[in-house]
UniProtKB/TrEMBL annotation:
This protein's UniProt keywords: Cytoplasmic vesicle, Glycoprotein, Membrane, Neurotransmitter transport, Phosphoprotein, Synapse, Transmembrane, Transmembrane helix, Transport
Family to which this protein belongs: Belongs to the major facilitator superfamily.
Parts of the chain that traverse the membrane: 118-145, 157-174, 186-206, 212-232, 244-267, 287-306, 400-421, 546-569, 576-597, 603-623, 635-658, 664-682
Pfam family of the protein (one): LD_SV2
UniProt keyword Phosphoprotein present: yes
Bias type Basic and acidic residues, positions: 68-92
Region (Disordered): 1-101
Organism, as annotated: Xyrichtys novacula
Official protein name in the record: Synaptic vesicle glycoprotein 2Ba
Length: 693
């Protein structure tokens, strides 16, 4: 329909770009009206003339695929509008992110500290205890496992190495995943993997399967420490973090006590095992491994009833879920305090949504189920790697480097001496045992019945003719350049027994565990082996193992005073003074090891060192979760814990190499690492009054 106003107005363009309007007045002459409007572009023409020629004339560039100038201008205007919108959104998101930490801290103060935190404390403490138990299991079962599964000395060290490598990888992987999948979900996965493969390792008869199951178990439990501390931190208000995270560290000590006590009570008891046929045997050391599953099982059951971290939910734009969790924390605490009428008044919490979240949401609604699964997990992997790379940002780089140095130095000295202490005690026992060896030279024994055990003896150039060795134990005995003629061996149990350069004639070995490896460069003439015992056999009367259990038990118990002191003073004097002071005091304790000339002295200095160094561990774990933002907290802690395991692997090889050679080098290395780490720790920023970013 035509505009009635347009019918009465005629527009003319005069020279110079002036506009003349003439209005018809019902047959009367119109009057001229002029104004000096600025010249306008073609696309700014009035509605009366715009597009007047479009119906009659086609834009000639359209045939060539050239966009119309109007389209280009419209696209530019749309791009400018979109850029302004994104800049405004980024500014709003930055303001929201700056406000979220303060708002979250205010909410946690309103929720209070009470029953909910204590319930979570014990559940996560059991998970930490499971990690502590796994750190001792391999060392306790190895003396029995190497005999039960005939593990050679070259393969014996492979078990401990693989477990630590698995724990290092697990810390790196699960620490990164818990920032994207959630703290609670990842901790459930970690404990489940540990339980399943630890249970299978209890029944593995071959060393290969045993290695594989322990490796998988280590990969699972290796992620527990980064997740536990990250998870618990996000339920604590600022003035409670240092103290209660330090109390949580005590559960690792309880794990060592539990493992030492149960090993002491179970492994030496042969009658506590059982057998299914002749090939499938469950000895007491396997029963001990089964009992060590209980802390992880209890933690997994308790974790089912715990909610996800509300801070993680807020960082991932899951406002409603976070609000429900915070209300649960609030109501649980105040009802327990006798104030059920207090209402959770928070109605809105700022939750910025990231581009990665939008990407997952968009891509996950398209394609097949497999494509959606692939997109989700590949995107999650990209986000984890981006998180890792973002830790090298300028504002995090320097403090991250300092933390890496302190973690490495502390782990190197602590785990290195942790290997050195028990190995040094074993070496002292071996030296004492060797000093009591009885040597028999050129003895001749004929027609004699050996019905008593032979222990810690060396027989050189002896002659044994028509002798009978029946139903006895031969322990740490060596026969050198000796002659056995017309002898009879029956029901022999041997440990560390060898025949070197001997001549054996017309001799029968019946139902013994003496096989070819026991005879080195020996000459056999008409010798018969009947019904040899298959495999290796345990000796449950070893006193050395009992002492090692006691040493580990006392070492774990010795950290109790340090744990209590660090928990009470963590929020009073600060994390930096705790870390630096503890490491420097521990370095002074290492010099006392030069005075360790007996087993009792080694045990005494071990307890003193552990008691002094545990405060540094507590401070490191507290400051590591406080320095990094919530979106990167698990990733950063996982990397630091992985570096800790790497340092432990290096230290175990270096310190073990000097056992029986010299004490000076291991002690100097531990001293230098502790001093270096303690001085660098003093450069770290104090986080005692820092709100979780």
């Amino acid at each position: 329909m035509d505009d009635p106003y347009q019918n009465n107005v005629n527009q003319q363009v005069t020279e110079g770009g002036e506009y003349t309007y003439t209005q018809d007045g019902g047959g009367q002459d119109g009057y001229p009206y002029q104004t000096d409007y600025p010249p306008q572009e073609e696309d700014a023409a009035s509605d009366a003339t715009e597009g007047a020629d479009d119906d009659e004339q086609m834009y000639e560039g359209e045939y060539q695929g050239i966009p119309h100038p109007d389209e280009i201008k419209e696209a530019r205007r749309a791009a400018r509008v979109e850029a302004r919108r994104k800049a405004r959104q980024a500014k709003e998101q930055e303001e929201e992110e700056e406000n979220l930490p303060e708002q979250y801290e205010t909410i946690m103060e309103d929720c209070g500290h009470g029953r909910f935190q204590w319930m979570l404390f014990f559940v996560l403490g059991l998970a930490l205890m499971a990690d502590g138990v796994d750190g001792f299991v391999v060392g306790f079962v190895l003396p029995s496992a190497e005999k039960d599964m005939c593990i050679s000395n070259s393969n014996k060290g492979l078990l401990g190495l693989l477990v630590y490598v698995a724990m290092m990888v697990g810390a790196l992987v699960w620490g990164g995943l818990c920032d994207k999948m959630g703290r609670r979900k990842c901790l459930i996965y970690v404990l489940t993997i540990d339980l399943v493969f630890s249970f299978l390792s209890c029944f593995a008869q071959g060393y290969g399967f045993f290695l594989f199951f322990r490796f998988c178990s280590g990969f699972g439990i290796g992620g527990s420490i980064p997740i536990v501390y990250t998870y618990f931190t996000e339920f604590l208000q600022m003035d409670k973090r240092g103290e209660h995270l330090s109390w949580l560290c005590m559960f690792w000590m309880l794990g060592g006590l539990y493992a030492s006590f149960t090993a002491w009570g179970i492994i030496p008891h042969y009658g506590w095992g059982f057998a299914i046929g002749t090939e499938f045997q469950i000895h007491s050391w396997r029963l001990f491994m089964f009992v060590c599953l209980f802390p992880a099982l209890a933690a997994l059951i308790g974790l089912v009833f715990m909610p996800e971290s509300p801070r993680f939910l807020l960082e991932n734009a899951r406002h409603d879920e976070a609000w429900m969790v915070l209300r649960q924390v609030h109501d649980t605490n105040w009802k327990a305090k006798g104030e059920p009428e207090r209402v959770f008044t928070v109605t809105n919490i700022k939750t910025p949504q990231t581009q990665e979240d939008e990407f997952i949401e968009i891509q996950s609604d398209t394609g097949t189920a497999f494509q959606r699964w692939t997109v989700r997990h590949m995107t999650m992997l990209q986000q984890v790697m981006a998180n890792v790379m973002s830790l090298s940002a300028p504002e995090l780089r320097l403090q991250g480097l300092f933390l890496v140095v302190v973690w490495f130095c502390m782990a190197f000295s602590y785990h290195g001496l942790g290997v050195w202490f028990p190995d040094m005690i074993k070496y002292m026992q071996y030296e004492e045992y060797e000093s009591k060896v009885r040597v028999f030279h050129r003895e001749r024994v004929e027609r004699f019945h050996f019905n008593f055990s032979l222990v810690n003896q060396i027989h050189r150039e002896g002659e044994y003719v028509h002798d009978k060795f029946a139903n006895i134990e031969i322990k740490s005995v060596k026969f050198e350049d000796s002659l056995f003629e017309n002898c009879y061996f029956e029901d022999i149990r041997s440990t560390n027994t060898f025949f070197e350069n001997c001549t054996i004639k017309n001799t029968v070995f019946y139902n013994t565990d003496l096989w070819q490896e026991k005879f080195k460069d020996c000459r056999m003439e008409n010798t018969t082996f009947l019904h040899p015992k298959k495999g290796c056999h345990l000796n449950f009367q070893e006193e050395n193992d009992i002492i090692i259990y006691m040493v580990s038990f006392l070492g774990s118990l010795a950290v109790l005073p340090g744990n209590i002191i660090s928990a009470l003073f963590m929020d009073k004097i600060g994390r930096i003074k705790i870390i630096g002071g503890s490491m420097l005091v521990s370095s002074a304790c290492t010099f006392l090891l030069l005075l360790s000339f007996s087993q009792g002295a080694v045990i005494c200095w071990q307890c003193l060192f552990y008691g002094a160094s545990v405060a540094a561990w507590n401070g490191l774990e507290v400051i590591s979760v406080e320095l990094y933002p919530s979106a990167k907290r698990g990733t950063a802690f996982g990397i630091l814990n992985g570096i800790c395991k790497f340092a432990a692997i290096i230290a175990s090889f270096i310190f073990a190499a000097f056992i029986g050679v010299t004490k000076i080098i291991p002690i100097f290395l531990a001293f230098a690492a502790l001093v270096c780490g303690g001085l660098v720790a003093l450069k770290l920023p104090e986080t005692r009054e820092k709100i979780l970013s």
